[in-house]
Structure formats: C-alpha cells, structure tokens
Amino acid sequence: MVISEGSGNPWVLAAVYASTEFRERRVLWEEASHLIGQGHPLLMAGDFNCIVGSHEKMGGKPFTYKRKIKEFQEFLDSNGLVDLGFSGPQFTWCNNQQGWARVWERLDRACATAGWVQCFPEHHVRHLPRIASDHYPLLVSTEALIPICSPFRFEKFWLCYPRSWEMVREAWSVPVRGDAMYRMSRRLELTRRRLRRWNREEVGNIFRGIEDTEEAITRLQTQEVQSGGLSEEEMGELRSHLALHDSLLRQQEILWRQKSRVQWIVEGDRNTRFFHQATLIRRHQNRIRVIRGEDGQLSEDPDMIPRILESFFRARWTEEAGGVSPVDIRLPSVGVTEEETAALIRPVSEREIRETVWSLEGDKAPGPDGFPPLFFRRYWTIVGQDVIAAIPQFFSTATLSTDWQRTFITLIPKRQDATEPSHFRPISLCTTLYKATTKILAVRLRDILPRLISPEQGAFVGGRSITDNVLIAQEFIGLRQGCPLSPLLFIICADALSRALRQAVSLHELEVYRPVEGATPISHMLFADDCLLLARSNRQAAGVISRILQDYCAVSGQCINFSKSAICFSPKTTLAVKNSILEILGVGEQEGTLRYLGIPLSGRRLRSRDCSSLELSIRHRLEGWQMHTLSMMGRITLVRSVLSLIPTLSMMGRITLVRSVLSLIPTLSMMGRIMVRSVLSLIPTYFLSNSFIPVVVLRTLEQLFRNFIWGRSRGRGGIYLLAWEVVCQPTRLGGLGLQSLVVRREALAARHVARFMLEPDSMWSSLMRAKYGLLLPGTRAGSHHSPVWREMCARAMLVLPEIRWAIGEGRSINVLEDCWVTELPISCLPTMVDSARLSGYRVCDLLDLVGGQWRAGLIREVLGEQLAELVLALSVPAREEPDRLVWMPSGQTRVRARDLHVLCSREPARQIEGGWIWRMRVHPRVALFIWKVAWGCLPTRSMLARRGVRVTQFCQVCMEIEETIDHAPLQCPRAREIWSSSPAPLPQVMESTQDLIHLLRVSMRSPRFWEEGILRAYLAYHIWLDRNAGIFEGRRLSPRMVADRAVAQAREATAVTTLFSTEMARDIWGTLSAVVARKFAYVSWAGSSRGSAHAGDYCCRSRASGCMGGVVIYEEVPQS
Asked: Mind telling me which SUPFAM superfamilies this protein's record contains (predicted)?
C-alpha cells in the first residue's frame, strides 16, 4: 500500500501475515526483498511468525538458534530493516496453555527502512491489550511530539568560522566585577548570548545553504554539457560554489557527529548520513513516551511523565528524616599519612589546571552552561587566564559557585521496553569547570587509593583489573555518573563493607571457602557496586552476612537491589538448608548459568553452543548495518573501534552500544566499513579476556567480519579482494591493522601466564599459586583443574622463555631453579655443573656486593667455563636493588598486549611495504585506494572477469583496450588527459601502477616532493572516481574539472595538516590517521668548524604530539 500524506513524500506500508511454515516464509522474504529494493521509504508491520533471539521467548522448550531464525535475521539485516522497538508488554503472542507448556513469544513487530525512519523520526510502536486473539495488536504512531525549547549548546562547526573568535573575544573584553568564579560565570553567559545571536543572524541555516549551492552547481554543470564549455567567469563561479558546498558539507558532518554523540569512531571518512541517522536513532531511543506511576497505571501524558520521574528520583535521592541509623560498627581502618594529606591539599598549579582541561573528552555532552571542554581548549588564549584564576578559588575557600554546581540529569533506558522509572539510569551532565575541579581532586586521590582500598575491590583503583575479579570468580563456582570524583568516593565508602566481611572471617564468625589448606580465604569480590559473596552454605554464614549487609545499609544509606540479586548453591546443599538461607537473606535462587560481570561462570571449557548469544549479537550488529551504504574504510574503522572498546564498558554499556550501532550502519561509506576495525573488535575482546571461546566460534566470527568488510551478504555482493590473513597483518606489512580473533585469543591467554609471573602479589596470582603451585615449562594440567589453568599450562612453553630475573640484590634468585642466565633454569641445561654444591645457593652468593662485581673464580669453579662466560657477561647493578622478574623484549615488569600479539603471530607469506600509505597526509579514503593499487587488487573489469564476474573486459571509456589495473588510472586516453591537465603530469616512463606506487613512496620520504606526491595520489583517486561515476551513474565532468577538484582537495589536505592542529584536522575531516604524518623541518649547524659536539641522554619525546627535542653540547677549542 502506497501512502501519500499532503505534500510529504509517499511511502509504502507492507502489512505482514507470515506462514507458520518456514519454507513458505522464505518465499515471502524474497518477495519483500524485491519490494524493498525499489528504494521507497517502507514500513513492514504485522505477524512475522518468527523471533530473532532467546530474549523474545519465555516458557516451553529452551531456545535454540535454528536455521529459520538465521534466515529471518538475514532478511532483516540484508535489507537494512530497523526494528522500531515498542512499549507495553514484552511479548505479542501466547499459546494460551497452562503450566510449563505456556509459551510467550514476540512474533509481531514493526520494521522500517532507514528512509522511513528519517521521514518519521518521532515514530512510536505500542503493544495494545490482547482481548479476542492470541496476538497483541500493534499501534504504529507517526505523530510528532510537541517540540521543546532546547538549551544552549556550543556547536562544534562554529570553529570553522574565524568570526567565532571575535564573538568570544568581545564577550571576554567586557569588564566584570566580582571574585574569580563569578567573573568566569558572567563571561560565559555573555559569550553564550553573543554566539546565539551571531548564529541566528550570520551563520544561518547550513542545510538551506547546501541546497542552494547544489542547485547552482547543477545549473552550471548542465550548462557546461549543453554549450560544450564555460567561460572563465562561469568556471570561476563554479569553483566558488564547489568550494562553498564542500565547506558546508564539512560543517554538516561536524554538526551531526556532535549531536549523534558517537564516540567510538576515531578515524574514517565523512559519513554525514551515518551521523544524521545516529542522531535520529539516539533521540528515538531516549524519548520517554510512556511511564508507570506510583498507582501502577501507565501514563502517556507529556505533562505527567516528568512529574512521575521527578517524584521517583526525588524520593530515591532525598535522605529520609532522621538520617542514617546510629549503628556502632568497629572496623580496622587505614589512615592517611601527613605526606599524603599535604599532597591532597597542596595549591593548584597552572600546569595542573591546563593538563586537566586537556584530559577531558572534548565532545562529551556539556552541562547547563552549554560549553564542552573543546570550547575551553580551542579558545584557551582568551579564556585560559580566567580559568586558571577561578579553579584555585575553590581549593582556598572550599566553596563552589552555584553556577558551576548546576547539573542536568539525563535518563538513559536500561532496556528496550523501559516503562518503569527504575528502568532508566540517571546520568549527570556537569559543567566543564565542575568536572575539571573534581578531576584534580580525583587524580590526587587516585595515587593513595591502592593502599586505602581493600584488594577485593577491583574498580577505579590503578593496577587492578576487572579480569582478576572474573578469573577469581571462575575458580569458585547508586552512583552519580558523570562526575570524575564520585566513583572514587563511592569505593571509599564501600570499603567499609569489605573490612566488615574480612573482620567477620578473622573472628571466625563467617566460614568461607579456601582453595587449599593455608591459603588466604576469599569472602567476597567487589567491582564498583557489583558484589560477589562467597561463604559456606549454612544458616550461621547466612545470618552473619545478613547482619553485615543490614548494618552497612544503615550507616551508608545504600540499599540492596534484590531484583538483581541471586544465590547459587553447590550441588550437595540440601533443600532444607537452601530454603532456610533463602529465607534469612530474602534473595531468590539463581536460575540457569551464573553470570558475573557479564561472563558466564563454569567449571568446564566453553562449548560452541555456549557462545551462540555472542555469535548472534555480532551477526545482528554487522548485517544490520546496511553494508551497501557504508564505505569500506568506514567498515574497517568500525570493526577496529568496537572490538577494542568492550573491555571499558559495563554489560549494559555493551548492550546499549549494540542496540545503537545496529541501526546506524545504513549510512556509512566503504571507508565507513573499515571502521569495522573500531567496532567489531569490541564484543570478543571482553569475552576473550575472561573466558576462552572455542576456535571454531572465532573462525565463524572472522567470517562475519570478512563478509562485512568486503560488503558481502547472504552469499552475494562483494568480492574478497585479498586473503583474510593479509588483511589482519599490521599496516607496515601491508595489512589493514585488524587482528585475527584466533591470534588475539592466543595472546590474551598468554597474558594470563605473563601476569601470573610478573605480578606475583596480585590477589589472583596468589590464589592460583596457592591452588596449583608453580608454573614451569612443561607443566601439565589435570582434567579437574580450571579452564584458565589448563589454558595457561598450554602456553607456558611459549611465554616463560621471555620472562627472566633482572638481578638486583640477588637474594630472591635461586641459582639452579630460576631463569636468570638463559630462558631455562640452570638445572635444566645440559651442562656439567656442581649441583650438589649449588643446592640452596642464591645469586647473591656469586656476587661481591662490596666490590660490585662477580666472584669470577667461584663461578668458573661451580658452573664450568662455557656457562661462566654467560654469567660474567651479565651486568651487576651499581646499587642494591630488589630482584624482579621482567619481560625480556621490553625489560619492563608489565607486558604489553602488542608484545604478546607479536609473540603469537606468524610471519605472513605475502607482504608489502605498507606503513607509508597510512602515514600520508591524505584522506583515509584516498589512502585505502592507494593500498588497493599497491596490492594490485583494484576491482577493474579485467580483475572482475578473472574472479568469475560476467562483465566485458574492455574499458568503458575508450572501448578499445582491456581495462587492467594499469590501464584505468594511467593508460586510458581520458586518464592521460586528466593527468596532463594537472600541475603534476606523469613522467613519460610511467607505464604501470607499481611505478606510480614507487614514485609516491619516494615522494613521501622527501620533504621537497611530498606535496607533489599528495597531489598525484588525489589525481589517481579522482580518475578512479570519474571512471565509477561514468559507469554506474552515467555522468562525467570535463577532464579539466576532474583535475581541478583533485588539486583543490590535495591543497586542502596540505593546508589542514600544515596550518592546523591535529584536533582541528580531525574536526574538518572526521579522521585522525590523515594527520599523523611526520612534519619535516630543515636544521642547519651554525657552530664553528673548530671544536667538538657531544650528544648524550638529553633527548625527550612527547607521545601526545609526537614531537622530539634534544640537547647538543658544543665545546669550542680555544685558539692557541
């Protein structure tokens, strides 16, 4: 049904009633795909008779991932259909049976294309009451809500206008009387007024400007084709419109990127449609349309919803009359030393303030003042002195300006069908100045936290990891978010719970599990407010735990969330004991697999079926991103960012990210698809770090990533231009910098071995050592050992040779049994040593600590000549230092993930020199094009024919010669004409693209020719774009215009990386990789020819900027 409403664009409504037979549904999916392929905005709603995951079913037989579900998912994802969500009951169908046979499923849904979502951004789907049917009716509403007045927000694209500097400078030049905080707040208010008026009167509507310039460009280009050319004046007008249009597009992308709040894309290319779609999806997901009040009734009244939410959170956050209960709890405490106190309250320096402001994320949503950290950084020369004067006022007066304390509370839904106030997570949006002030306090406090906070707490303390909590748990089988200081204050308060539990254990009131006799007992594990309690299954332990929790809640004001709490019993616990413990604690029993911090805890290895939800979520994410509208570079970057982010997100954060990204991908370019480097790595890393996913599952996931990057779906579409092993190589070896999940699994498993050896004092290492003993090369794990220990034993031979003792005092190193000379202990070497005499010897017995040298005679006597030479070659520390285990490749006590990845990787069979390509000062999309040319995998007609694609091999421009990779960008007559029209024509000896690659590589290495190299890279890229436009769109510009556009973009690339900072270039291009190329500087020696120069260890390097500096001491020889 085609629906046309007034002057709006027509759209298609497809009412669905699918068959219960999946073979008949397959026919429906094919017909619907053909309808969707026509490109009209489309809404599909009705009974699909299929679900997509276990979360859409309750009751009956356990959920299994069957072929019919996979086909339904592929239909939705390959056609880019977005599930519009719902409010109301979670399921839409019931079989109306009783008992265990009663089944609920979500068979009915409303899905739409991205075009329909953009036409109706305020859409809403409700599940109406089920009365006369076994299905719930769907109500799809497209009515727009009443617009609300949005608060002021500093727009990032204003930075493109020099006039914005004048506005800020004018506001800051107004004299203001008062203290430093008041002057700062007043001048921000003046700036806000001026920027708002300037935006309204001068900047105007950039969307209208884009439409106007497009009309002018179309008019002139049509005139050029019809009249055979343009005059110089008309050509200048066309260039002016093209430049203005490109500038407006940059501003549009910056605007939508800022509003989308997408933080995980750090490089890629201009994907305005993606950011626009992200903004619409984010607004739709965060819109609260219905809420349940205290009376249990659902309300859709726009006036009542804020009142209900305000009442709920006000009651939660308001302290009850009488305050907390006066419970007398005597706990051992740890005090702060005088030195630590002095460090906490020391005066704030100018450098400390500036570093703090620069450490805040520039694009984070601002508070009520509307100014993000980016504003203060960019206009620091104007506002910096006022900031430096205002922040120290708090540390000297202990009072904070009311304007700085104002906070927006934004509610983020925790679940898709959020209807209760408790279903929303409150997030505080603080002002930048408030965040900077509290972060200074947080940074100072963080240095002393490891000593103050109990080792059971794994969150927000440096050197502690969430991985340790999960690994320890596997051996056993209310926060103001947005303020940097709040997490640290929370764990300081929560430490009272840890000390109370440990006191109960030490007084033998609480009986807990010990892995082996004599080992340190572990009664609990904390990660922020997630608490795992471990104790014997008896009434006494339950009573002690109940008392401690009640006392802690009474004195802290915190409460236990019983709806999210559960008890897991051992199999030998009797039913009577279970019931009594459940009654004492008031918590239900755990159903199904116990999950801690998002990881299933199991005493066995994971199987493929255990990871079905992981595969399901990744498949849903990748294929739901409409690969045909996402560039390859975008897909690669996406895979990169998401796969690397997951360790930093909470479980809800990961779920939210999955939901949000699922609907966004319809809008990214192929450069967008390389963004896969950023988004695809997110899900597996967290699971790989804390559990060992079967290799067969990882191979399946890699196949999904491979299809996603090359734009392949349901067995159709893109071609694999290069092997996956090549793509996963580092960029310096010609790859795209992706990481193989199989290699990553090996590296993360090896990391456990390295941490076990290098961090012997951590809680996890101590537990594992007490339970299993030492880990040596060749150590074999038993079948009764935990999966973690078995994986560690399997990789001991690979990792342990890289770990050795760094000699200090020598008292901790056993001469025979420790690795300090070679990768193996001396006792394992085939040498003739006096083992009986060396028994019990320490390395310090072979050292003359007074003289600072080896006891050579004794060493040769007991070790033999050959081994003695190796020992005597080792350096002796100049002063007494403790012995320490180090990772030999770096000499550090901590191992880097990069080192482990190199250790577990294999040398590729095919490689090219590719690092220079990604260091070029060009747009990442151009770099990707050069990368394809360097590998010889540009999809020309000749190459496609060799891959089995039915296509003529002749060039569609000259129609005379086979279109090879050398012909298309270099040898085609039209390509040669474009080259000759440019300021950088090709040398006559240039015959192949490999010659071009060599020329570009040489140009990038020379500061004299790098601009010319950039220009040639852009020319080759625009020749390819012109070829594609002619074949697929039937339009071509004149060769001169193609050359002009390439020259204009090349000059822009050169200007941006030369004149602006890295952050400004990222604002303009949406990329970081294009501006990391090194900058050349000519250095000359002005010293006298008589004399000498000395260079020592006087060199430093800044990782942030990449700058280096050094000192050369010149000593002139005096004349005689």
From this structure: DNA/RNA polymerases, DNase I-like
